[in-house]
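Q: Entry one of two.
A:
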Amino acid sequence: MNIMNVVYNRSCHPKMQELTDASVDMIFTDPPYFQYRAQNVKKLRNHKDVVTEFAFDGFRSQEEYLTFLEDILKEMYRVAKSGASGYLFCADDFVSYLNQIIEFAGFKVRKVIHWHKTNPFPAISSRKMFANSMELLIHFSKGSAATWNYKPVNEMHNYRNTAITAADIESLIIKYHGENKIEQLLELMKDALRDGTLDNLIENPICIGKERTRHKTQKPLKVCIPFIEISSNPGDVILDPFMGAGSTAIAALQTRRNFVGYEIDAGYSELIQKRFDDFLTKNPGFNGEKPVIVW
């Protein structure tokens, strides 16, 4: 039986082997990115506009990196329940490789989701490159996805206040009542909005303000929570083998889910503990399993 709401200050490999088979309802994780191009931009490491994961790049080759992720994905498959969904952040460099590895592990790749960062780091003009305002998120499942909680598409985009709503469509139906073809089309549009038709795009800025920690690639809660709510239910267990700043854990707590995760860096584990303390202070009535770090 797994201990709930715990982050182990250990590497997920091989520590994850201690988890029980078919014991997690969802996977949500942001593994290290193999920044092979960084070898050619060493002079940019301290540039104020460059944020990369140099500290995480301990891989000697692309093959070593992909083998590492394949081993982790096989363990994810073992511990996932039938019908569990998973989400894995990745860079555009390796998305095609990861799609294949995910399927080799036994999962079914469902869709590549695009996170549009509305406040990306600016491009460096001397390098003659476009700013990188997109990050990818691979959605996969163990068999057919067991949970799919529809969410209004407007909630996935930061322009929700100006987006069309079901109420807007209803007013148009009243206006065009009796004009059959237009009225039928509007009814279909209203049904689509009410049912929460979702596309593979989410728009949100990178972490800013009080939520921001010193973790360089921290994922904002507004990007994590929608997918957690779509693919899991309250009381479910979410696995994150690469906790980083602990966003998956905080998102789980805020949505009444449980979690289990791993973070090899002691400094980041301390950061997660502080976020746990802040959550418990702000939520004195929290009656779930108290979140802890196991050192």
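Q: Entry two of two.
A:
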Amino acid sequence: MSQFYSCVITSQRPTRFKFKYQEYMTSCKRLKKRLHDVFTELYRRGVRRFYVGGALGVDLWAGEILLEMRRQEEYQELEIVLVYPFPGHDERWDPKSRERLRHLKENCDQFVMGSKIVGAQGYRERTAYMVEHADCLVAVCDDEPAGPSGVEAGLRMRRLLRKASARFHLLRKSIAKGISAEGNDNTFFLFHFRILRIYCKGIVQV
């Protein structure tokens, strides 16, 4: 039986990506397709609970992808946990984006306020909450993850939480061929997406 049960999704801000927030662009659509494929494979491997951070961009897109999956009979056990960084973090969003987030909040399985502190500290505490509750991590970032972001914070926290006995194996596979089921439960997946990379890092204590 798989030792994976929960997963956190984190990402750099879309301003780091060439398509920015333009969801109509082919590259953004391809990213969403890859996220869907990763979530599908994780579900097959036993992941049932997904933590999403409630920010514009990949957080919101991932939440919507998971909602759509949950509507399908084969993903009825899927659980979505929406974690806000702090109250009112979406006050300056455009109306359409706020409505999309509201819909996600109303239809998620659990809602958590990650912090009461407004600003960067609130985002860090939100990320810390999600990482501490997850068995694996999906991170979307470009090839030069410099500067502060949920990706760097998430990976850094995961390294701190990792026990010395944890083992890792690197698999490099094309998402078009599917995620390899070879290896043991301690697996690090790397997918190239033009300038983006999707990391799925599982940490299992042995």
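A: Comment on entry two: Residues 26-44 form the longest helix (19 residues). The helical segments are 26-44, 58-70, 95-107, 120-133, 150-161.
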